[in-house]
Structure formats: structure tokens, C-alpha cells
User: Which sequence fits this backbone?
């Protein structure tokens, strides 16, 4: 049984006849709205315009206070919902009525769509969030369970609720003193002996990465090596077993900082629609991971390469409408000026070796040997550059197109070695996919006649071929720094490669 502290609210403060409310409630709502005392003034005024009230008796107010306390499990702050005014004995009873309505509507809005408008932090955001007329929704709950009606507005996604469970666990860890810090010093390696290794061992035991084994606590043995590698993989660090600066920094993040990170990712979930599409693609930029989804099932997982920190892959949603086998690469102008021009100047032979073509502004091919490349500058670059299909083509054998203003898409790559790395932020913004032909087979499942053999035959031909999808596939490029394991419910904290968590956290604090 869950313990719920008793909060005494005198009956005479909340039970009034309809005559005692009415106009006085509307007047109080207007006064509080004008003074800035309400968080959702427009919705509150609509409620009392549609139904003057009263809307709160003792059981409903008690249920509301329950829901406000429970908001902490969503990573929200109960004091943001007029908790003090609702429980204080000296609160004017009519004001208490209005505060309760405002608290309900504000909490409902935060559970439904988040505390922060994602567009203010991610200008490229295009996913349409969940919407509802909350004033009408509130009035529909007249005889319903207030707490349950609020809980029903939170995301239904299982991963959201796994994060809520993790938040509770890490808040307990933080309250109980968390884990000890590993002292600074030189990198720790297998086979070494040091008093700092004992601290490392204690830290990994505290987070469940290491079972406390008998032996010399100051010695870096094989069991500790495997525990360090496990920690590094979960953090998206190279699993080399060496506790250098990056690994040490991750180890020494406090439980309180992990709590904050979970709250930020809960907020990101609240920005999303409930329906991401029955067959859809999700890319977690921070985890270098692409998932194909069919209903509630994750059907395939692919490693991906994403944009460098100074050429970040944007967060947005789109609809894949076609793919191209053996694509030409029409090089973005900025990339041609800043990246390719220095290569042309250093080695003119690159045109033949890499299959580049130069076109004038009218689209006519020109002989690259006729251009004095040393006289061309990035500010004066009157050419288009494209690369023919082939083994060295930057897009590889296939590109997946979901037209968007960012000119970002999924594609193959000839740089296969990049997928062996743990940290994979090497692109200019697009997403490079491991096993792209497998992904093409999945994408084309709804297009008759497009089996794997046909795809492979066309790729082998080297001929550029555009394939229109019989049914568009939603694509969501997202950014999660806390990742849920669907099978175990465990979570991983991954590197915030673009330093976006801090912006979300500050916005959630109203900064």
C-alpha cells in the first residue's frame, strides 16, 4: 500500500453553495489572471465562462493534490502547481477554487505536450505534438477520477514509463548518498596497482557494473576490466578498458546529474505524438542508432553515422517517399566550396580517381583540367560538383529520400570502417547507414515486385534508378541521451554529443 500523508483542508473552505460562487469565481479568476497569478489564464477563464462552478469539493481536491505529488514521477516539480496555495489554511476559498483549476490545466498541459515548446529549443522541430482542448477535457471530468484523468494525458509509450521507473531508482540513489567519486590522476589500465583502483571498483559496484569479488582491491584485474568495458559501452565510449579522462568524467557524474538527465529525456517524450506511424523509422542521433518499427515491435536495428558537432544532424520528422539506387551525388554547394575545393587544389587527379564532374551554372559539363583551381576561392565558386555512381561515391549504393528543407537524408557510405567506432559523429549532417540494402528491402516491403534480388541486380548494374514507395514511411530524427533497453527495462546514459541537454534543462527551470 502506498503511504499518502494526510493533508487537512477544512470543509468550510472548499464546500460552498453554487450561490456563493458564480460571479465571484469569475471575478476572482479575472483578478488572478490580470495579476499574473495564473499559469494558464486563458484556459481557466474559458472554464468558468463555460461553467461557473464550483468545480472542487474535498474528494476532488484531494485527488488533485495526489496528482500534483505524483507529477514528480514524471520529472516535474509539484511546487509548480500551486501546491502551497491549495493546502494553506489561510488561502481565500474562492481563490483556492481558481488555483485548483489552474493547477489542473497547467499540469494537464505539461503532461500532454511538455513544459517547453520544442521549437524554441530545436528550430527544426516538425513533429506534431499531442493536442487537446483542455478546458473542455477538464469539464468532462466532473464525476471522474481527477488523478486518473491527468495520468491519462501522459505519453503512453512504454519507454516513457521505463524512464519514470528509472527516475525513481536514481532519485533513491541520490538521496542515499549516491556513489563515491574516483580521484583524479593518470589513466588506469589493466594489470596496474593503485589506491585509485579501489575507488574505481567501489564506483562500479555502486552502479551495478561490477560484482564485489575477493582479491586485491588495489589491483586492476580481468573482472574489473570487463566491468569498465561494460560501463564504457553503455556510455558510448570506446570500450578499451582504459580509464582515461573521458571515462573518468562519466564515472564521476553524480546520481543527481543522472536524475536531471532522465528528467530532460522525459520532457522530450512529451513533445512527441502518440502515433509515430505503424511502419516507421526512428533515428536516435546521440546513440548512433536507427530502428525500424512495425506497430509496437522494433524489427531491425542499424548502426549509423551522424553529423559532426559543428555540422549537427537536425531533429525533425519527415516522410520517406522514394529511394535511389546507384545515386549520383549532387554535392551541396557549401560542402563543395569548403571541403572539396581544397582537395581539388591539392590534387587535380582526384577528378578521375573519385569520379567527380564539374558543371557550369547552366548545368553543362566542363573539363576540370581547363580550370585554374588555384585562382578559385570559396567565395567565388561558379560551379556545380557531382559524383558519378560507383564504389567511391560518397552516398554509396543507395540513398533514402524524405524531402526536407535541411537536405538531410539516409544513405550508404564507402567509409565502412567508421561503423567499427563507438563514437560516430563524422558526417556533414546526413545519416550514413550500415547494411543499407537490408534497410532498402524493409522500406520496399509494401512496393510490389521489389524483392532483395531485384535490388541487388540493379545495384550490380551501376545504373541510377529511382524507386517510388507505394506507401510513404514516416522518419523521425530524434535525440535521446537516456536509452531504454526494451527487453530488460535497463537504461543507458549516452554522450550528449551536441550539448543539448543543458538547454532543455534550463528551459524547464524557466531560465
Assistant:
Amino acid at each position: 500500500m502506498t503511504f499518502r500523508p494526510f493533508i487537512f483542508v477544512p470543509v468550510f473552505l472548499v464546500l460552498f453553495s453554487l450561490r456563493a460562487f458564480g460571479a465571484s469565481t469569475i471575478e476572482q479568476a479575472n483578478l488572478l489572471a490580470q495579476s499574473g497569478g495564473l499559469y494558464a489564464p486563458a484556459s481557466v477563464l474559458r472554464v468558468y465562462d463555460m461553467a461557473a462552478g464550483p468545480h472542487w469539493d474535498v474528494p476532488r481536491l484531494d485527488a488533485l493534490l495526489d496528482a500534483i505529488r505524483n507529477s514528480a514521477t514524471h520529472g516535474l516539480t509539484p511546487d509548480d502547481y500551486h501546491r502551497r496555495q491549495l493546502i494553506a489554511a489561510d488561502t481565500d476559498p474562492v481563490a483556492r477554487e481558481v488555483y485548483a483549476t489552474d493547477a489542473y490545466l497547467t499540469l494537464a498541459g505539461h503532461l500532454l505536450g511538455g513544459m517547453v515548446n520544442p521549437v524554441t529549443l530545436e528550430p527544426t522541430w516538425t513533429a506534431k505534438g499531442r493536442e487537446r482542448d483542455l478546458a473542455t477535457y477538464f469539464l468532462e471530468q466532473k464525476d471522474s477520477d481527477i488523478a486518473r484523468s491527468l495520468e491519462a494525458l501522459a505519453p503512453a509509450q512504454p519507454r516513457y514509463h521505463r524512464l519514470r521507473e528509472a527516475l525513481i531508482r536514481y532519485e533513491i540513489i541520490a538521496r542515499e548518498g549516491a556513489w563515491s567519486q574516483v580521484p583524479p590522476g593518470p589513466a588506469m589500465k589493466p594489470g596496474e596497482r593503485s589506491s585509485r583502483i579501489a575507488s574505481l571498483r567501489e564506483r562500479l559496484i555502486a552502479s551495478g557494473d561490477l560484482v564485489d569479488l575477493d582479491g586485491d582491491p588495489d589491483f586492476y584485474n580481468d573482472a574489473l576490466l570487463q566491468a569498465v568495458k561494460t560501463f564504457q559501452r553503455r556510455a558510448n565510449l570506446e570500450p578499451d578498458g582504459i580509464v582515461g579522462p573521458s571515462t573518468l568524467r562519466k564515472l564521476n557524474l553524480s546520481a543527481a546529474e543522472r536524475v536531471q538527465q532522465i528528467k530532460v529525456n522525459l520532457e522530450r517524450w512529451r513533445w512527441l505524438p502518440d502515433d509515430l506511424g505503424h511502419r516507421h523509422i526512428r533515428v536516435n542521433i546521440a546513440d548512433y542508432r536507427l530502428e525500424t518499427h512495425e506497430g509496437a515491435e522494433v524489427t531491425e536495428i542499424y548502426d549509423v553515422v551522424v553529423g559532426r558537432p559543428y555540422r549537427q544532424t537536425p531533429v525533425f520528422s519527415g516522410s520517406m517517399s522514394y529511394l535511389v539506387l546507384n545515386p549520383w551525388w549532387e554535392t551541396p554547394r557549401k560542402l563543395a566550396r569548403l571541403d572539396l575545393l581544397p582537395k581539388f587544389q591539392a590534387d587535380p587527379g582526384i577528378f578521375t580517381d573519385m569520379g567527380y564532374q564539374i558543371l557550369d551554372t547552366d548545368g553543362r559539363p566542363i573539363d576540370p583540367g581547363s580550370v585554374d583551381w588555384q585562382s578559385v576561392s570559396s567565395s567565388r565558386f561558379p560551379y556545380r560538383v557531382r559524383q558519378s555512381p560507383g564504389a567511391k561515391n560518397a552516398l554509396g549504393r543507395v540513398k533514402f529520400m524524405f524531402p526536407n528543407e535541411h537536405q538531410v537524408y539516409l544513405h550508404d557510405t564507402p567509409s565502412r570502417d567508421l561503423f567499427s567506432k563507438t563514437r560516430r559523429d563524422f558526417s556533414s549532417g546526413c545519416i550514413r547507414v550500415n547494411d543499407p540494402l537490408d534497410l532498402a528491402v524493409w522500406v520496399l516491403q509494401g512496393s510490389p515486385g521489389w524483392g532483395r534480388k531485384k535490388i541487388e541486380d540493379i545495384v550490380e548494374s551501376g545504373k541510377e534508378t529511382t524507386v517510388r514507395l507505394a506507401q510513404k514511411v514516416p522518419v523521425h530524427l530524434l535525440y535521446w541521451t537516456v536509452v531504454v533497453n526494451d527487453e530488460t527495462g535497463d537504461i543507458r546514459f549516452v554522450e550528449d554529443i551536441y550539448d543539448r541537454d543543458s538547454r532543455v534543462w534550463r528551459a524547464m527551470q524557466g531560465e
Notes: DSSP finds 19 helices and 15 strands in the chain.
